[in-house]
Amino acid sequence: MNDALPEPEPAAPAAPADAHEPAAPAPLGVGRELTGHLGVDAHLERLAEVDHLPADGHLEVYEDVHRGLRAELTSLDAHPAPRPYDNRS
Length: 89
Hints:
The chain is mainly α.
């Protein structure tokens, strides 16, 4: 009977050091069209910032743009304050 242990299998070659590094930021190539509303267009233009950020930085920009667009939409529902000469009795 042979009590010798089997030879261990050779270890897999080590992966290069950069194999698990995140990819560099790259533009998504999504076009943005002007809406004609300056406030909305300014917020939408901010979306271009994510083209130069790593993925973990996108959320902050998206949330900020979302807040800004909601504020613009809410402002459309606001009634303008009455002017003094509009309240004639």
